[in-house]
Every structure is written in C-alpha cells, then in structure tokens.
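In response to a reviewer's request, we include the raw inputs and outputs for one of the modeled complexes. The three entities were modeled together in a single run.
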Amino acid sequence: MPEATEGTATLPAAEEQAVPKSQGRSDGAKPRSLWSDAWRDLRRNPLFVASAVLILLLLVMTAFPSLFTDASPRDGNLQGAFLKDPEYGKVFSAEWLGYDGQGRSIWARLVYGARASVIVGVVVTAAVTLFGGLVGMLAGYFGGWLDSLLSRLTDIFAGIPFLLGAMVVLTSFDVRSVWVVSAALVFLGWTQIARVMRGSVISCKQADYVVAAKALGAGTGRILLRHILPNAVAPVIVVATIALGGYISAEATLSYLGIGLADPVVSWGIDVSAGKDQLRNAPHVLLFPALMVSITVLAFIMLGDAVRNALDPKLR
Amino acid sequence: MGRYVARRLLQMIPVFLGSTLLIFLMMHALPGDPVRAMWGEQAIDPSQIARVKHDLGLDLPLWHQYWNYLSGLFQGDFGTQIASQRPVADVIADAFPVTIRLALFAFVFTVVVGISLGVLAGLRADRLLDKGVLFFTLLLVSVPSFVLGYAFQFLFAMKLGWLTPTVQNSEDFGQLFMPAIVLGSLSLAYVTRLTRTSIAENLRADYIRTAVAKGLPRRRVVGVHLLRNSLIPVVTFLGTDLGALLGGAVVTEGIFNINGVGRVIYEALNRHEGSTVTGVVTLLVIVYLLASLIVDLLYAVLDPRIRYA
Amino acid sequence: MTDKNAKKVPLLEVRDLHVEFHTRDGVAKAVNGVNYSVDSGETLAVLGESGSGKSVTAQAIMGILDMPPGKIPQGEILFRGEDMLKMSAEERRKIRGAKIAMIFQDALSSLNPVLSVGYQLGEMFRVHKGMSKKEAKAKAIELMDRVRIPAAKERVNDYPHQFSGGMRQRIMIAMALALEPDLIIADEPTTALDVTVQAQVMDLLAELQREYNMGLILITHDLGVVADVADKIAVMYAGRIVETAPVHELYKRPAHPYSRGLLDSIPRLDQKGQELYAIKGLPPNLLNIPAGCAFNPRCPMAQDTCRTDVPVLHQVTERDGDVLAGRGSACHFWKETIHG
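The model returned the following structure tokens for the whole complex.
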C-alpha cells in the first residue's frame, strides 16, 4: 500500500488517517499544550459530552447490571411471556421492552449483554494498542531491515479479511468465551494501529527536537519514551477509540453469525440472531438488541471522532 | 515507473507467501480437529479418523502439507469441501459470480454516492451540510451491517412493501438494490469521509491559492486542480475496499438469502467445516493482494511524484 | 490630492484598508488602515515581520483571501481608479492573473504537484485567451525560454518536483508574466531559495519588470533584497504602515524607531565582534493589539502618549521644515528619531 493511505484500508473502523499536529501550538503570548487545548475543545462539544455520558452509563451497566434490572437475563418464562409485546409505560421494569422467544426479559438481556460487548471492546483495543503500537514504534524508529521485516509482517496480517479471518480462527475453538473471541480479534486487528504508529513515529523522528535530543547524546530508550512517544501517540489514540466501536460491532457480528460468543454468555449479537425469525410478527425481539449495539458503537465512534477533531488543528 | 512496479511485485511475494501460510496455520496449528469435527458429537473409531486424515494428506509433516496446499493453489485447487467431497474451487465457481455482481453493485453505489457527498461536504467544511453529512457517516459506521440489513428488510419490504425482503433472482438488479446498499454502507461512510477530509485539506493547499490567483474559474479550480489531487487517497482506498466488500458479503448474503460465496461460508460455518472457509478466504486474500497491486500502479499513474521517485 | 488624481491615476492604490479574521479565539485585526500606491514601472517594497499584515494586504488586492474567516470591513482597492472591492466576482476573476499576477514564496507547494508545468503555464492562455491545448503548450515553452529555463522544450512536460528550487521559482515567475500583467505582487519570492540563487531570481524579476514596464509590489522581511530593486518602501507593523520613504533615504535616515531597529539588526562588516542589535520583545498578538502605538511595548523611545494615542502617518520634514517628498512616519517622536 502506498504510504499516504496506509491504515485506512483495513476493517473494522478504518478511518481517514488522523495525523494531528503533535507539537504544542503557541498563539502569541500564551502558549497552550495540544492536550489542554484539546480538552477545552472537547468539553464544549455536545457530541463528545453525549457520547461520554453514554459510555459511562455502559461502564456502570457492565460493572453493576443489577442496578438496572431485577430480572434474570437467562431464566425465561415460556408459558407466560413468550414473545410478549413491550409495555412502554413500565420503564426499566422487566416487561418494559417485552420478552423474547424463550420468555426472557429483553431489557434484562440488554443490560447483561453490555458486559460482553464492553469487555471485548476494551480488551481488544488495549491489546491491539500495546502490541500494534510496539511493532509500529520499532519499525518506524529503527527503520532499515527491522522496518522491512515488521512492515511485511503487518502486510501479511492486514491481507486477511478481518471478519472472515476471525471466523477461521474461531472455527477451531469449541468453547468461545469472551477471551477467545477477543484473542481472535487481536490476532488480526493489530495491523491498523501498527501502521498508524509507524507513520506517526517516522514523522516525529525527523522533527527537530528529536534530532536535537539525539545530538545532545540522549539514549535510544530515552528518546523513544520521552520525546517520540508523547508526540506520536495522538493519532494512535484517535484510531484506537474509533476502532473500539468497530471491535464491539465485530463481536456482535460474529455472535450474530453463530461463530462468536454463544450461550450462556449474554450477547446482543446472539439476541439479534435469535430475533431474526420473528421479524415479521415480533420485531421488538430483534429491534432492541440491534438498537443497543448500534448506540454503543455510535458512542465510541462519536467519542473518537470528537477526540480527533480536538487533536487535529488542521481540521478546524 | 518500471523500477517502482518491480519493487512492488517483489514486495508482494513474501506477503503472498506469508498470508497463505498464515491462513494455513490458522486452520492446522490451532486447537481443534477439522476431521474429528466432521462427525460432530458422534463417537468414532480413531482408525477411521486416521484414514481420512491420510486421504486428505493431513498426516504429513506441516511443512509438507503447506507445500501441497501452496502448489494446489497454483493449479487452482483450493482444497476439498469435506461434507460434499466437491472441490472447493467448483463450489466457489458456482457462487462467485453472484457475489461479484453484488459487490460490484455495492462498489458503484459507494463510489458514486460517496464521492459526491464527500465533495459537497468538503467544499463547505464546517457548514451545516458538512456537519449533517459527517453525522450521517457516523451513523453508517456505527450500525453493523446485519442490523442495517434487518432494518431495511423490515422497513422497505415488510412495512412499506416497496421491495422483496429476500432475493429470489440474483440476476435482477432491482432485487439486488437493497442488499447492495446494505453491503456498501460502511464503505460509503469511509469514502465520503475520506473524500471530504481530502477535499477540505487540499482546498487550503498553496497550489489551490495559486490556481485562484491565476484567475481560473471556480469550476476549473475544483474540477481540475482540487479533485485530481483529492481523489488520490480515495482511489487507493477504493482498490482495497473491493476485497472488503467481497468479505462483507458473508453477512449480507445471509440476511437476504442470496446464494453467493457468503452463503457458502455461512453454511460451512454452521457445519463447522474449515476447508471451505479457508479456501474462500485464500481466494479473497489473492483478490485483495491483486487489488492492492493495481491500486499501487494506479497511484503511480495518478501521482507523478511516485512515478518518478 | 484630488487635483493630482484627476491628472494621473496610480496603477494601484490601496486606501484605508482593513482586514480582520474571525477566529474561535476572537477577531484578529490583521490589517488596520493601510494606504499605499504603485505606478507602472515602479517597485514598492513592503517590509515587515510575519504577522505584520503585509501578505494579507497583498492577498486582499489579489482577491484570494479566505472569506470567511477573513473580512474586509472597510477600505478601497483602486485598480486604475476603479474599486475592485465593488466589482463582481467574475470581473475580479478576469483581472486576476491577466492584469494583476502574484508570485508566491514556496514554488514547490504553490505549483500543483500532479500537473505538468507546461499544463499549468498553458492554462493561463487557455482560460484567459481561449487558446487550444497545442497553442498553449507552444506559449508555455516560449515562456520557459523567457525566464531562461534550459531545454524548455524537453522539460515542458516535467512535473514541479523534478525541477530545482530556483527553476521552480522561475516557473512561478513565468506563470505570473504569462499574460503580461500591469502589476505583479511578489510575496517573499526568494525567501525559500539559496542565497546564490536568490540574486539570480531577483535580477530576472527586476529585468522583466523593466522590460514590460510593470508595477511591482515586493513583499519581504529582508532588507537586503529591497535595497537594489525597490524605488520606495513601506514598513508595516501590526497591520499598519509605520513608515514610507524612498528606499535609499530610509536606509540613511529612518524616521521610525521600528525601521531603525530593523536596520540596526542587519549584521555589518564594520561591526565585527560587537553584539548584534535585536528589537526586544515579541511581535504583537493580533487578537489583542496594544493600545496607542502598537510598537510601544518594544520601543526604546516610548513615552506615555505612545501608550494612549495612535500616531497618524506624519509628513516627514527636514529640521528647517522642508518637506521630504514621499516620506511619512507614524511615530509621535519622528523628529527625534530622524534628527535626534
């Protein structure tokens, strides 16, 4: 791939490459740092505030689902509640969003389903950022044969379609826990961060302050950690935030296809899959988990988008 | 130009070998036994498993198996579908035209709508239209395609009755319309955003200022100077995107009941059969690699700085 | 004044021009009442630090300011006596490139990277003169010859990145010259070039200007470039003209502390070993220009009046009151500065 678009071509959340100006800006008398400037921007952005509140809510749901519902997500009442319609008046009660084909409260399923989505999203993003970031940094900083080797390795992994590749990996596992699904996504997902990090490090490496630090005899480790990393990390954070939404979407898709998470794990993807046969007579069974996935992914992607705009003065 | 092409071709060889090796290892080196999985929960005599493994060459050393797999690939042999005993290549040949038709339809939709929206938004960066388009693309990226598929099916087919909910005849472009839009929606969002960013950025480039200072009409400034530069990253994205569309067809075809490659994979997955999936994925990797090669060449055609580097 | 105007209208006259930029942090006042004029065959050098408003003024003349965020709340830009700010967009476009042309600082980024130089040169003829592609290419080759690019015929299909910096700037000049405009605005035309190439490019520009009898506005921060080619000079600070003078008089006897500071900060051979003079302080923040004279926080001569009253451009005279033609200084203490 040509340099200019590396990192844009792969799923799941390939965005146009964000390349924030990493140096602090100074407007006349009062110099402000990139980060404090960005933070000031973010607080004013309604999209950011909305997505941050949503994400906070999801995190609470993940940690303490029982705060939101008394109903069990797994025990169904087939006789009494089979595909029962929602009762929108009873907000937050078990009946609120109706019952699914096994007589389980859909609201309870939604609340408990947050855990799988959030854990997969966060775990995959953290792992991918650490591993991809390391690969990208080494390739970008040292260049030469190491760069060639790592870049080809990245190409190889990037060449495999993300979702299909994950399916191939997952077919080998009989028990697909949250961790197995996460591992499969990390296995194929790290390349995007690696490419972004590599590009970012290369542009930082040539910056005058790095050349100066080198000339002053700073060691490699010090240059990497103190000078390059803080300046190169901004685009990586942006891509990672947006990718987090993509991983949640990928988990839901895999679970929907029956190749991701499986009962007894509660996952919105499974619920959508279960609801598809009743789309005509009981659309709510599919609607709410589908909506939940979409809102969750939207929250993370909106967050990433807002962060990118804040960090990238070019787009102003 | 010649050296550039040669270099790209050379770089592609290790990537091709690496990708195929990776798929191969994913199938063989990970826990789980595809042959044992053929019988599902049934009890089975170990000697029978050993015989099947021998027939499939699965008892050979791993490097030997890879060699067989690779040399098979060069002869168009993508393995054997275990359930039906048909060559995977035949299964693909039956299903591929349908998927290609769907993917191309989605591709054209993506290109036409995505670039138009992106240009419109980019020229008015930060205005209301731009913000609207940006939010729309955020929505598109956020809604997983299986959700969008069912939403369309429910709304346009079941409630409004405009379209048939599933595709009966994959030759009929009218029926492919809805699946193609669903399949292309994610790419549409990327193409729109990429075009938009690229246009907005280049609009501030010095050479655009020069073009204006030359007294060129706006149509010419945008159509010749701005578009030509701004579409370079979009074209490179589109090339690799074709592969992604083919891959994304798995989900879309399942929803709309289309008998394409996605359906083949979907069914293979339900049977827990790896060889078909691996064969299709290998084919898609090849398509992806070829597409990125074409994109690289196209990139050189579009950007003289690459051509003469 | 009006009498003179009736007889001879200047080629270009800027009157009380104001330009501001509306940013998220407030309104940046980039140009705050600039007046200057250029005649055919005359070279006006506009001197100032970055942020002094010299380039913004030029962009306003060209009509290539980004609006918004830019805005021209007040002022006139008269081209042959006609206010261009009142013209329609289409009328202005026809002047751009054909009557008034501009040369930019960085030729590499100012030329379109994906189009051949021949195409970019020929475009002028195709758009403004309606020539065919073939005729335009012939004209492009002619122009490249004109600015002394070797092997013009072979290189007409090359791309900007294939030329050296000096050659690229020659192409920029050729492009500006293409339709033999009445006025050329050169914005730091040699800043991005090597010193040795700078002189060649500057000489070429001056020579072509004489030949076509064009007006030239030369925008620069480099006093060295100015001396040889300019007729008169306008020094800008914080969006205002602080001093105007015929070029050699300014060098001899500056009438504004800022001009003097600029002159004193040029290294000279006879000062070898001494510490180089530097104007203390930073250029003003355009969002918040100091009250009174904008230069007062940095001025060694500043008094209380300087902090409250904005100085107008005074006519500069000799001690005995003889008017020094073409000289003005926007300093309350211009007398002390020039005669002191």
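As requested, we also summarize the result in words. Residues 15 and 93 of chain B are 25 Å apart (CA to CA). DSSP finds 13 helices and no strands in chain B.
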